[in-house]
Amino acid sequence: MKHYVSMEDFHAGEIQSVLSLAKEYEKHKIPMQNKEIFAANLFYEPSTRTKSSFEVAERRLGLSVIPFEVNHSSVQKGETLYDTVKTFEAIGCNLLVIRHPETDYYKDLIPSLNIPLINGGDGSGQHPSQCLLDLYTIQKEFGSFKGIKVLIAGDLKHSRVARSNARALSMLGAKVFFYSPAEWVDEELLQWGSFCQIDDILPIVDVAMMLRVQLERHTETGHIDDYHQQYGLTLERAKRMKSGSIIMHPAPVNRDVEIAGPLVESPQSRIFEQMRNGVFVRMAMIDSLLQKWGIGTNENTAKERTMVGW
Amino acid sequence: MKHYVSMEDFHAGEIQSVLSLAKEYEKHKIPMQNKEIFAANLFYEPSTRTKSSFEVAERRLGLSVIPFEVNHSSVQKGETLYDTVKTFEAIGCNLLVIRHPETDYYKDLIPSLNIPLINGGDGSGQHPSQCLLDLYTIQKEFGSFKGIKVLIAGDLKHSRVARSNARALSMLGAKVFFYSPAEWVDEELLQWGSFCQIDDILPIVDVAMMLRVQLERHTETGHIDDYHQQYGLTLERAKRMKSGSIIMHPAPVNRDVEIAGPLVESPQSRIFEQMRNGVFVRMAMIDSLLQKWGIGTNENTAKERTMVGW
Amino acid sequence: MKHYVSMEDFHAGEIQSVLSLAKEYEKHKIPMQNKEIFAANLFYEPSTRTKSSFEVAERRLGLSVIPFEVNHSSVQKGETLYDTVKTFEAIGCNLLVIRHPETDYYKDLIPSLNIPLINGGDGSGQHPSQCLLDLYTIQKEFGSFKGIKVLIAGDLKHSRVARSNARALSMLGAKVFFYSPAEWVDEELLQWGSFCQIDDILPIVDVAMMLRVQLERHTETGHIDDYHQQYGLTLERAKRMKSGSIIMHPAPVNRDVEIAGPLVESPQSRIFEQMRNGVFVRMAMIDSLLQKWGIGTNENTAKERTMVGW
After folding, report:
1. What percent of chain B has pLDDT over 70?
2. Is A35–C306 a contact, with Cβ atoms under 8 angstroms apart?
3. Does residue B262 have a cis peptide bond before it, meaning omega lies within 30 degrees of 0?
4. What sequence ranges are listed for the domain Aspartate/ornithine carbamoyltransferase Asp/Orn-binding (chains A, B, C) (predicted)?
């Protein structure tokens, strides 16, 4: 695997290897790069969490990040993604993280690409760093995936997260359940778990993973008003969850749509913990990918730095 | 004071402590951070001076700055300020500087915030770093505030600067005068000084502090054409100012509206000097705030660096 | 020459001096700055290549780059270029790179500017770093300029590149030819070379330098459809080029308009090589300009760093 573009490419061993490395990073072991390595984060869609989290991860690893804002770039003159990517390669960039609205955008790039690529989200396709940080959060909470019951609920059809998570969780030994409004059911998912009613399943799951309603893509108002009561994680529903169970969400959250506002920062919620974990996981992804390409850390010369607030 | 959000929170001793630290920075003493500290500047309104000045201050102190552009962030997907702020906290940010169009935006944030916040301007509310750099500029010029006469003239009603400066100057022993068009008088200000006519007061003041006409908020044309002659600092008026007196302005300047173009870089003007001072003052604010939180410089290990052009 | 704003200011010796320094950089000699030096890239027009390339060059030299995005700056409040530039000078910036749509924008700035300026492109005027990287690419290929035959073809009238390149190439001993649609002929260019028909000249030139059709400025559709066959470098035309000859383009490329898509990455093309060379050339420009101002590298203390992928 020369690029991290899809969770489909990861087998269980590779997932565990990234999660273990992330755990090392969380325990303060920071192998500083002793070479000058340039990264660029090419985000063709708005993002706060994923982009900033990759940025922090890159800098903690000692990489230098070349800024790129699509609105001020030659994309405005009609430059293609391919030419932009090859430009960054030409000027000396050693790692690319790309988010792009087109599903599978990376398939045309990879044959000509001479530097490693991490997919930061493609249309309704893949989002491997989100999947891995979700897995990390669950493993950290429960120690293992064996027999852990996970409900994935919400917009299953348009979610980059649902498919990757369902497949990986099932592969790692968890039991997956799905719930969504009828129009957002995705038949393909059912190979990794079973569809159920939220009120039936909530009392027995260990994890309620709520997906974001993409309000910016679904503008039919009216629907949204009922959504919370019918399909969302309301305060009442959360009360029926079992002791020790947790709530997850990839964020940004629509408070009082897919999840009741007060639950976001409740003791049961791991939503901000997911973001915190995301930095370690992305450090692990970057570091292990750079090592595959032979441009990573020289362990003998790696230095530890003092980090604040970790 | 765990956050620097409002000049209302500063007593005279705290102001002097920041100004003294800024003076140390101006004299080349740069205590480098020996820890990895991340800052983010979340600017929800356009800014050149304040944003870039904080950026330079942060880097001179050795901090790593995480980029954020509101137009390319999840704010576009409806994410609230609160959730954006908590996201930056979660991914390991150690200091936030925020500018936001909503007055008092910080009041809802502070109860849940676990990292220090500096207010870079809130609506028509506070702008403490601008106030402190104005004070620094006056103290540097006159040695002290006792008996210094300061005219604050222009859009008193919508200015973030007028109120903070009036209160602080009065508290530190200066004598404050106000002048503005009738519709921009702000009664509340009169507790810290007296309203007067610009032509009467200009010959006796030590400082003429001209405020910016916010052309982007006041679109009634016609008014602007007369503004300069009636309310602005014209070349003729400037000639009647006393020897040793100075002209200040928070910038950006509307040349030939609130101030005659040639005055901006005249020997009497401290407008670009204010910007230069702003970097030292912001370094002092950041450093003293980080020290309050226990994440600042370890003085024993602080190293001096050679700075260019200081 | 205190600023690099126009190729008109360069005589042959100065060009060779920058090209030689660039060659040193390409051979891994990286004199690190041992001082804190701040640069800002003020780009008032979209750019990927030039902006990112300057950014990489600055960082490789150890400079700290202050971000600036025109859409989020006080330019939105009507601040002039002059005041923005003087602001960056005031807050401690030591080097400016500016791209601006107004031809000759720099002429009003220079008399008041106390820090070095590199012109990153002005309207239909100059673009010295592009010219120097083109020269570098040709010299690297052919060893010298003496007798090298170069065709410059395309939108001669609006090109920042055509004039600078024609003049410099002619001065350095190359023989220059021009070709363009009738409405884009520029009489002034003919002092440095002769106009000819593309099909006549292609078989004898060493370099075919194709210019970009600025689709964003020329919206008359219909014209573009014929452009490739009539004026562009088609696959058929490329086949008639002589052995050892190369194809150049400043990019971004309009594939199948000024140049056939498959030629962009063909063995004959130096288009991505030009981008790669651009970083070395910009490092050389920055370094030699900083040295002229006495704020550059102290050679005795310069350290070499390991660079990845060079």
Report:
1. 90
2. yes
3. no
4. 146-287
How far C257 CA lies from chain A's nearest CA (Å)?
12
Check whether B212 is labelled as a binding-site residue: yes
Which pLDDT belongs to residue B70? Answer: 87
The angle subtended at Cα C214 by Cα C211 and Cα C220, nearest 5°, is 125
Nearest to B279 among C76, C92, C295 (CB): C92
Q: Residue A36: which pLDDT band, with cuts at 50, 70 and 90?
A: confident
DSSP state for residue B232 in the 8-state scheme: S
Band of the pLDDT at C198, cuts 50, 70, 90?
very high
Q: Which chain A residues touch B75 with a CB distance below 8 Å? A: 46, 48
Note whether B21 and B287 are within 8 A (CB).
Answer: yes
- Residue showing tokens 């030590």: B206
pLDDT in tens, B245-268: 999 999 999 999 999 999 999 999
Alpha carbons B50 and C69: distance in angstroms, whole number? 14
Report yes or no: C208 at the B interface, CB cutoff 8 Å. Answer: no
Q: Do B113 and B13 have their domain in common?
A: yes
Is A273 at the interface with chain B, CB within 8 A? yes
Q: Residue C245's closest CA among C275, C270, C274?
A: C270
Q: Which of A55, A214, A255 sits opposite B66 (nearest CB)?
A: A55
Exposed e or buried b per residue across B125-154, where buried means at least 16 C-beta atoms within 10 angstroms of its C-beta = bbbbbbbbbbbbbbbbbbeebeebbbbbbb
**Whether residue A158 sits in one domain with residue A93:** no
Asked if C220 has any chain A CB less than 8 Å from its own CB, the reply is no
**Average pLDDT score over chain B:** 90
Q: Cβ(A198)–Cβ(A140) under 8 Å?
A: no
The residue ranking higher by pLDDT, C215 or A297, is C215
d(CA A142, CA C51): 47
The whole domain housing A40 covers 7-126+277-300
CATH number at A292 reads 3.40.50.1370
Residue C257 has pLDDT above 90, yes or no: yes
Residue C111 contacts B, CB cutoff 8 Å: no
Q: How do residues A210-222 score in pLDDT, each as one tens digit?
A: 999 977 665 554 5
Does the structure show a pLDDT above 60 at A175?
Answer: yes
Indicate whether B113 and B153 sit together in one domain.
no
CA distance from start to end of chain B: 31
Quick one: pLDDT at residue B295? 86
Residues 6+ apart with CB under 8 A from A168: A7, A10, A15, A131, A135
Cis ω before C116 (30° cut-off from 0): no
- In A, minimum Cα distance to C70 occurs at A72
Asked if residue B308 is part of any domain, the answer here is no
**Which run of H or E residues covers position B175?**
strand B175-179
